[in-house]
Structures are given as structure tokens and as C-alpha cells.
Specification:
This protein is α/β, with parallel strands linked by helices and about 450 residues long. Helices cover about 30% and strands about 25% of the residues.
Amino acid sequence: MIEINSLKHVHLVGIGGIGVSALAEILLNKDIKVSGSDIHSSEITRHLETLGANIIYEHSGENINSDIDLLVYTSAVNDSNPELKKAKELSIPLMSRSEMQGLIMKDFKFSIAIAGAHGKTTTTSMTSVIFNHTEIDPTVLIGAVVPEIGGNAKIGKGNVLITEACEYKENFLDFHYTTAVILNIDEDHLDYFENLNHIVEAFAKFANQLPKKGHLIINNDDYNAKKILSYLTVENITTYGISNESNYTAKNITYSDLGTPKFDVSFNGELLGRIELSIPGRHNIYNSLAAISISHAYGIEFNIIKESLQQFKGALRRFEFKGNFKGCKIIDDYAHHPNEIKATLEAAKKIQNKKIIVAFQPHTYTRTKELLNEFSLAFENADEVIITDIYSARETDDLGIHSTDLTSLISKTGKKATYFSTFEEVRNYLEMKLDKDTIFFTMGAGDIYKLGELILE
């Protein structure tokens, strides 16, 4: 069994990834020698280099030597990777990113793992910002850059770790946590999961891995999340919701002209106070209720929770304002699942008197094919939809699916939809269409954010 304090040199394949880079920062803080490889230099890799990481910008067996006593890899890396091959030849121990994170989590007295198909990053960010306004001083691992904590990782001096927990390949079962949060359960990652029931089973396992005195916090309005309640062995369960009576409840909801909500929060029927968010959408009421439930359980005063949530402006790539073009607000959002698209556009619709144009980049061939009909119906609140090529991520193009299939289905719903193969074509098309009466969204989990930057140039 590998112990974190016994490590002297760790090599991380794909060190520039948002999850792996956070682990690298924690290892560096423990005075462990860190090396890594990635294809491109980025702001994240340059930051790690300033902290002392040695990064090589190619994947090669020559990067691996017997000085390394552990190699960490992500789900995107397969057996053909030359660094994995060389590590096996040299009998260097291998560990997945999630196993490494689980090892780090063992070092903390309290650890909070926030899981769900949607909203993990925002809820983890909200929770981290609230805790950051206290003397708890947590260590934080987030799947996005959060300006309030200065990045995607924060090294604290306290005994609490806060992290998001991804269900892909059941990676979150490698974690060690004292508080588990389930925001929602939805059909996704069908390149690994067989069906929705398989996903529900994985979340039930996640909840049941809590220690005997552990604490589960769960969305009482989410139909699929509630399915697991009958399977649970954990006794300390807290619920939150809007529609169903829960331990934490949001009532008297109103929205500003910019779509940002205000609502009263009650705990077991007792009014705690009124919350005002600076980020839009009903889905963010749910995210904030989860963050409130966590924070209140850790003894944080409601006034600190309230002020922190009002100041929170969101993680990067989550309804992120990028700039103005001819008076048109350009917003980037990470939404890459039909229900995430719906939630984002419902929030946008509450911004008064604006036409909504969306450029969507489908993410992975598997997700696009399996959820094609759901995607075609997700843009109800957009006035016009532009579809770009599928972002392959970890996959190869062998499923017989193309972005034009989605474009055609959206058009059949009566919505104006157009396919473009390059960002330059989209920019040229939009140049005369964007104005002060329009909001333009770039949407997807790939590199679609570059389109907004291209327009703003």
C-alpha cells in the first residue's frame, strides 16, 4: 500500500488537465518532486512550473526513468500511451487520478465530496468560497478556475478538504470522504454506463461508502436521486429542495432583470434568512441550497453564507461573461448535456428583451449519438442555434454520427439551426447579426470558448 508521505517523485501524465493539475499542486506543497507531460503549454502548466514542476510538452517513453516512484494517469490515457508502457517496463507503480485523489483525501480529518450529473463545479466553488470566509481554511480541488480562490486548487492549513466527485467510470468510488453530496442523477457517460439504472446504482454505492458517522446531503426534488434512498445504509441524511418539503427549503423566489434569484431559506421550517445570488438561474438555487446545507452542517453562521454567496460571481466557463461585441453580451458556458443546456437557456430567458443565439459544440460522439433526440429539444429557449463539429475528447469517430444530424433534428422542431465546420465561418456569419438586443452563447465542454474570443478580437 502506497502512503502519500513515502513518495519522493511523482510523474503525472496529462498534468495540464484541470483535475490532474490540482493534484500536482498539492503534491508540490508536500515537497514531493513533481514531473509531468502534456501536449500543450497553458496558463495552468506555466503556473505549475513556477511552483517547481518539471513539465515536458510531449508524451514519450523518454520522459520516464527509474527515479520516478509513482506514475499517475487520467481516464483519457489508454494502454498505448508510451509513458505508461515505459513505466510498466521499469515496474514503476501506476495509479489513476481518482486513486491518487483518494490517497490525498485520507490525509484529512474531514472531506466533502460533491457529486452529481450537473452543477458539481459551481456547488464546489460556492462551498469553497463560503468556507474561505471562515477560519476553517480548507484545501480545495475544483474542475474549473475560480477567481475567488485564485485557481482550480487551494492549499489550506485546516483539516477539511472540499472536492467535486465525478461519476465517470465510477471514479468517485476511489475517494475517501466524511460528507457526500448528491446534487442530481442523470443519463450521461453512456460510453461506460449501460443505462440509467447502472448510474443510479453507482451513486448508491457512492453514498454507502460513507463511514458510519458520515453525512449524506441530497437533492429531494431530483427524481433519480431519490431512487437511491431505499438502498442507503448511512443514517445521517439531510435533504434540500424547492418543490418538496425538505430540511433546507427555498421559498418566495423572485428574479432580477438579469435573471439572478432571491429567495428565503428555511431549515426544518425555521426561517434562516434571504439569499441573493449574483449568478442567474433556478438551477443555481439548487446549487446554492446544497452549499448552504454543507456550510450550515459545519457550523458556519448564516450571515457569512449569505454574504459569500452574494459575492460569488461563478467559476470560469459557467455562464461566464467574456465581453461585448457591438453591444452584444458574449457569454461562455460549459453546458454539454441536454439538461444543462436547458437550465442555462432558462436562466438566459429571464434576462429581459434579448434575442438568444447559441453556438453549441457537441462533446464526444457517444454522448451525441445516445442523447441525440434530447439534444434536439434542448434549445427551446434559444432564438437561433449554430452547431459546430463534435469535440472528440477521448473518443475516435467510429459511431457514424455527425453534427449535421443534430442540426437537421433541431431544424425539424421549427428552430433555425445552421452547421458550420470552422469557428472562422461562424464568426463571419455572426458579424452582422450580433447587436445590443442580442445575447450570444458559446456552449460546450470542448474548445468552443475560443469562438467567443475570436469574435471579440
